[in-house]
UniProtKB/TrEMBL annotation:
It comes from the Bacteria. Pfam families: DUF4190, Septum_form. This is DUF4190 domain-containing protein. Keywords: Membrane, Transmembrane, Transmembrane helix. It comes from Streptomyces pluripotens. Residues 349-363 have a biased composition (Gly residues).
Amino acid sequence: MPPYQPWAQGYSPYNRPAPVNGLAIASLVLGVLCFLPGVGLLLGLVALRQIRRRGERGTGLAVGGMILSGIGLVLWVLLFTMGSPSGLWQRVKDGARGSVSTSLTKGECFDAPGGVLSGRPRDFDKVSCSGEHDGEVFASFRLDDGRYPGQHSVTNTADKRCWSLQGDYAMDSWAVPEGVDVYYLTPTEESWTAGDREVTCVFGNTDASANLTGSLRNDESVLDADQVAYLKAAHVLNSALDTAPDTAHTEGDLAKREAWAGRVSVALERQARMLRAHDWPDDAGKPVAVLTARLDKARVEWAKAARAKDMDAFYQHCDAGANLIDPLQTVTARQALGLATTPPSGDAGPAGSGGDGDTGLQV
């Protein structure tokens, strides 16, 4: 029986597998870490050449590293183009929000496609507030985290908050032109999943074919100390007047009307105190003093309305009190202070029978 032939040189009886290419591993690591993506892409290319020439393993690793490094390279280019990681993420959120720009900040003005602020505008262009524009941002706030509460809930919250915030930006409602209304930009369900919680409050014209001209901002950054003092005092009364019960649902409800009259009476006392506490310039001192005296008389009538025994007595004192705080009676003081002197529509006379949900009184 012939002897066994010896193993040929270079042949292993255990059939060891070919080694894995080291550059392929390095390419994959750099691709996963998104670190030095250009280097990772280059190492992947070199690794493929070595694998074919040496018969090594790692083709999948090299290809995977090249793909991840390529993606990383694109992201790095976008990062440097758009300025910062936060800027890039903001654009991701804007894309989810239907391309609505959430980078608009308080005091900025913009144009919307077709001048339409309702619905979900696709894009806004920032423009100077000195010229014509479609909208002006007057406030913004964040909604609470958690699950998306639904469009109806988001809209209701935006409506209430934006209406309450407009007075901080435009302290003098008389200086706001006719036709200007409050709009708001809200997160969509899609942008909510990307972390978008911001509501942007905007002034715009109710007529889509009309524009705003000039900034509507009149707050402490624009007004002088005397104007601010007057408007803060007026805001106390206006806030109380705005709490009037709705006659459509409370007709005959004397208790609610009396409670409202009581709030107005307290506000009148506070307003008069604030006006007396301020040191007015000489030309404004007398008209403000005359106005304050009328507020004192009005407070007495509103206090009587708050204690009325029946609806007839309530209306009697409410009408008398409303005539004493007729917005036209404030024009002289406003003129002396350099404030707007034309009452907004609906503010040109007294509240009449009182008790309406919209009293028409804005002093």
